[in-house]
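Weekly structure sync, notes
Attendees: PL (lead), two postdocs, one rotation student
Agenda item 3: pending single-chain targets
PL asked that the sequence for the first pending target be pasted directly into the notes so everyone works from the same version. It is reproduced below exactly as submitted, 130 residues in total.
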Amino acid sequence: MDDVAVALADPVRREILMMLRARPLPVGEIARPFPISRPAISRHLRVLRESGLVRDEPVGRRRLYTLTPEPLGELAGWIARLSAPAGWEHHLDALETEVHRTRRERATGTAGPAAGPAPHTGHERTEDTA
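Predicted structure, written out during the meeting:
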């Protein structure tokens, strides 16, 4: 995961990955829109290849570079864990959602028998059975 994060830290490498989303490209086409030299692009491609984000294959006299997004999965999972609530916040959010749902069902009369008895409000009539 560290190699992937290091590779993604550079804006040129991120732009190269975006270019490779559409189709495999040779280094000449990859280098064309950048104001840096082709050897510099080759060094960026080497970092991307070593991190596993790009693979290359010879096609005739040139090499085609292809995006391989699988190494992004571990980093994406780690980022998702960071952005999700942790501990009690998550449980309290779930409780709040359940309270709102129960109130809405009771207000609309859609609460079924599984919802349990209505809460005691002190205003209920009691039948005299004696």
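Discussion points:
- Helices lie at 2-8, 11-20, 27-31, 38-51, 72-83, 88-108.
- The mean pLDDT is 85.
Action: rotation student to compare against the earlier draft before next sync.
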